[in-house]
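Researcher: Structure prediction, please.
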Amino acid sequence: MGDHDDLRKFITDLAVVHGRVVLSSGREADWYVDLRRVTLHHQAAPLVGRVLLDLTADWEYEAVGGLTLGADPVALSMLHAAPSGRSLDAFVVRKAGKAHGLQRRIEGPEVAGRRVLAVEDTSTTGGSVLTAVEALREAGAEVVGVAVIVDRGAGDAVRAAGLPYRAAYTLADLGLVA
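Model: Predicted structure follows.
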């Protein structure tokens, strides 16, 4: 099996939780995909980085990140999995700017004037990743696209916002029904 198949197995074995839940979008579902069980796992995290780097290999970007918390381990996995010779920075977009210190909304290396990739672990409505995109654009970054590990339906909203969108897995890939 390759990285893509191996990561899918980690997701189905560790992250898919069955039972009634309320999603961050406010929608209810009979199952939940808790990708932090995968993105923070010692064996799965490197796979996350490699799979998403492969998924976006034809996009040119210098930094990767998104809205905290779902995007943080995804971006770090990609940073650490980047091949030797490729400079890839990671950043974190806060939900709101800090009221102290440097009062930055985006933490990490400067994104102004840089091509960046917005990521998320999973997305249902696109709300979180589009919030990150808005903050990145306000900071002067050029967002080249959005990539997620698992798409729960956000693709249309992200594309409607004028951004290319890719997901490593669909719900069908995981044997789940929307």
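Model: The mean pLDDT is 93.
Researcher: Thanks, that helps.
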